[in-house]
């Protein structure tokens, strides 16, 4: 399935718009990840632990909108937008919101 941020897919005309699909994924960054990120922050450099949390949340959000699109008869999703927020006490959780339009190409 093609999932894209663009409003159309070159070479694949949209035959039918099925509707908006959304996904909200909330994932915790546990104490061990926080500790390791704190060490990385102290010494500098990239935080692979948090990058993995972001990648996992983004992957899950894409898979969910893909499944929603299939459920309503779509075979592609266009106009995808991603939004990231921190939630929970102490902002210890990451929320990824993903939305787009399911289409038939």
In short:
InterPro entries: UPF0145_dom_sf, UPF0145_YbjQ-like. The protein is of the alpha+beta class.
Question: What is the topological layout?
Answer:
Elements lengths: L1 E2 L12 E13 L2 H13 L4 H24 L4 E12 L5 E12 L1
Parallel strand pairs: 1-3
Antiparallel strand pairs: 2-4, 3-4
Family: Belongs to the UPF0145 family.
Pfam families: YbjQ_1 (PF01906)
Protein name: UPF0145 protein ST44_06125
Question: Could you walk me through the main structural features you see in this protein, from its secondary elements to its overall organization?
Answer:
- With 105 residues, this protein is of the alpha+beta class.
- The protein has a single domain (2-104), classed as Translation Initiation Factor IF3 (2-Layer Sandwich).
- It is 35% helix and 37% strand.
- It has a four-stranded mixed β-sheet, with helices on one face.
- The longest helix is centred in the middle third of the chain and has 24 residues, at 48-71.
- The termini are close together.
- 20% of the residues are buried.
Apparent shape? elongated
Beta-strand percent range: 35-45%
Please name the CATH architecture: 2-Layer Sandwich
Question: From the alpha-carbon coordinates, what is the Rg to the nearest angstrom?
Answer: 17 Å
Instruction: Please state the structural category.
Output: alpha+beta
Largest sheet: 4 strands, mixed
- Main sheet strand line-up: 1-3-4-2
CATH homologous superfamily annotation: Hypothetical protein apc22750. Chain B
The number of domains is 1
Straight-line distance between termini: 10 Å
H-E string: EEHHEE
**Oligomeric nature of the chains:** single chain
Helix content: 25-40%
Let me know the average pLDDT: 85
Pfam family, one: YbjQ_1
Protein name: UPF0145 protein ST44_06125
Family: Belongs to the UPF0145 family.
InterPro entries: UPF0145_dom_sf, UPF0145_YbjQ-like
């Amino acid at each position: 399935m093609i999932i894209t941020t663009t409003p159309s897919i070159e070479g694949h005309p949209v035959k039918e718009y099925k509707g908006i699909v959304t996904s909200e994924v909330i994932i915790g960054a546990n104490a061990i990840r926080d500790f390791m990120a704190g060490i990385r922050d102290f010494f500098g450099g990239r935080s692979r632990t948090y990058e993995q949390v972001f990648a996992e949340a983004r992957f899950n959000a894409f898979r969910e909108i893909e499944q929603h699109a299939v459920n309503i008869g779509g075979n592609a999703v266009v106009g995808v937008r991603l939004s990231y927020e921190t939630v929970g006490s102490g902002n210890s959780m990451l929320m990824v919101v993903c939305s787009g339009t399911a289409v038939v190409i």
